[in-house]
Design brief:
alpha+beta, 2 domains, Homing Intron 3 (I-Ppo) Encoded Endonuclease, Chain A, 3-stranded antiparallel β-sheet, 10 strands, 24% helix
Length: 148
């Protein structure tokens, strides 16, 4: 489904008004923001995570939650704006979703696995979350193979 959406809307920019005050700001499905006069707002990456931000009414706002608020709906309780690919600068709608912090952590681990498998417990992951919560390290594998 995401692939279909990506091909059908990725090359077309759709604009919609942002629902939260101040009124008059528009956000696109490609992660762009326009001010009340229709001019594009300059976005910049700054601070923790290097997420693109736009200054709206003197406040710096992250762009990816704004895209979700416009095209998906208000932030559900306990959820945060997540990037499927963990690329902070990619605020295209098909790369974003509302998810719990644990889902965001799973995305991060799936996209950036540890370089040393013995450095931390590994969990087998799927798109829906953990499949098996047993730690899979080389020490555990050796213990299982030796009957320990």
């Amino acid at each position: 489904m995401r692939t279909f959406l990506a091909h059908s809307i990725i090359n077309r920019e759709h604009w919609a008004p942002h629902p939260r005050p101040p009124r008059g700001y528009f956000v696109s499905n490609l992660g762009n923001v326009r001010g009340p006069r229709g001019s594009a707002l300059k976005t910049y990456s700054h601070g923790r995570g290097n997420y693109p931000r736009a200054t709206i009414n003197g406040k710096r706002r992250k762009v990816h939650p704004m895209v979700l608020e416009v095209f998906v709906g208000p932030r559900p309780d306990g959820m945060e704006a997540c990037h499927y690919e963990d690329v902070a600068s990619n605020d295209v709608l098909v790369n974003l979703h509302w998810g719990r912090q644990s889902a965001n952590d799973l995305d991060r681990r799936r996209n950036h696995p540890p370089t040393n498998p013995d450095a931390a417990s590994r969990t087998v992951l799927s798109r829906c979350g953990p499949v098996d919560s047993v730690a899979h390290t080389s020490a555990n594998a050796a213990a299982r193979s030796s009957g320990g």
